[in-house]
């Protein structure tokens, strides 16, 4: 695949391997640009961590993050908890980064009146019980692909030191081990982000 020159973005070589996170960080930024900085993020995988970091870097209050995997409950200036330990039900904006099929039922039950759910994950099909959404006059948005403006905003946050990308790539393997890397990336809870190293090929 050849990338059109107009879509190529120069980055500082000092970013090193963290440069591969730029598109994903722009996706996270777009979710915030669409729905505003969330006060609850569902999922603390790579996308959830980027959404939380970008929210804080942009000057918003530190969000709460729900994560069911104990290995992923390590925050970075914000609270990461098991959802069963959270009894709050007045969240203003909930951003889902988990792709959980029943996210709307989970989220609508925790919204305050007039609250909004931003869907930043990937879903096959979604459904929900109507009464909780009706009682809260809930709103829903879908965050689509990032834009050049999101790329520029993320680069500005990185260049000013407000956004750190360190610590997000948890695993790196040679591209020749891709057959083993892919299952690990999708099944190992300790694997937040897998990067294939193509330099030896």
Question: Your description of this structure?
Answer:
The protein is an alpha/beta fold and 201 residues long. It has six helices and eight strands. It has a six-stranded parallel beta sheet, with helices on both faces. Helix 1 (22-35) packs across helix 5. The radius of gyration is 18 Å and the shape is globular.
Properties at a glance:
201 residues; alpha/beta; six-stranded parallel beta sheet; two-stranded parallel ribbon; 6 helices; 18% strand
Q: Secondary-structure map with pairings?
A:
Elements: H1 22-35, E1 40-42, H2 46-57, E2 64-66, E3 79-81, E4 91-96, H3 103-108, E5 111-119, H4 130-136, E6 139-142, H5 148-159, E7 171-174, H6 178-187, E8 194-197
Parallel strand pairs: 1-2, 1-4, 2-3, 4-5, 5-6, 7-8
Helix pairs in contact: 1-2, 1-5
Q: Helical amount among residues, as a percent range?
A: 25-40%
Supply Rg: 18 Å
Shape: globular
Main sheet properties: 6 strands, parallel
Oligomer: single chain
User: Class by helix and strand content?
Assistant: alpha/beta
The end-to-end span amounts to 16 Å
Overall strand count: 8
| Strand order within the widest beta sheet | 3-2-1-4-5-6
| Mean model confidence by pLDDT | 91
Number of helices: 6
Q: What is the helix/strand order?
A: HEHEEEHEHEHEHE
Which percent band covers the strand fraction? 15-25%
Low-confidence stretches: none
């Amino acid at each position: 695949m050849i990338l059109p020159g107009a879509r190529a973005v120069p980055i500082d070589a000092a970013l090193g391997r963290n440069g591969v996170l730029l598109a994903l960080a722009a996706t996270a930024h777009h979710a915030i640009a669409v729905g505003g900085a969330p006060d609850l993020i569902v999922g603390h995988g790579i996308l959830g961590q980027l959404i939380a970091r970008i929210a804080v870097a942009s000057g918003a209050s530190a969000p709460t993050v729900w994560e069911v995997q104990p290995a992923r409950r390590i925050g970075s200036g914000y609270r990461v908890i098991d959802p069963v330990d959270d009894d709050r039900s007045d969240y203003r904006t909930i951003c889902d980064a988990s792709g959980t099929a029943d996210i709307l039922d989970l989220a609508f039950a925790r919204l305050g009146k007039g609250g909004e759910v931003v869907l930043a994950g990937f879903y096959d099909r979604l459904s929900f019980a109507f009464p909780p959404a009706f009682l809260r006059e809930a709103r829903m948005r879908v965050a689509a692909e990032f834009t050049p403006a999101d790329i520029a905003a993320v680069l500005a946050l990185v260049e000013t030191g407000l956004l750190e990308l360190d610590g997000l790539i948890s695993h790196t393997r040679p591209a020749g081990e891709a057959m083993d890397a892919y299952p690990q990336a999708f099944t190992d809870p300790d694997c937040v982000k897998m990067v294939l190293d193509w330099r030896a090929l």
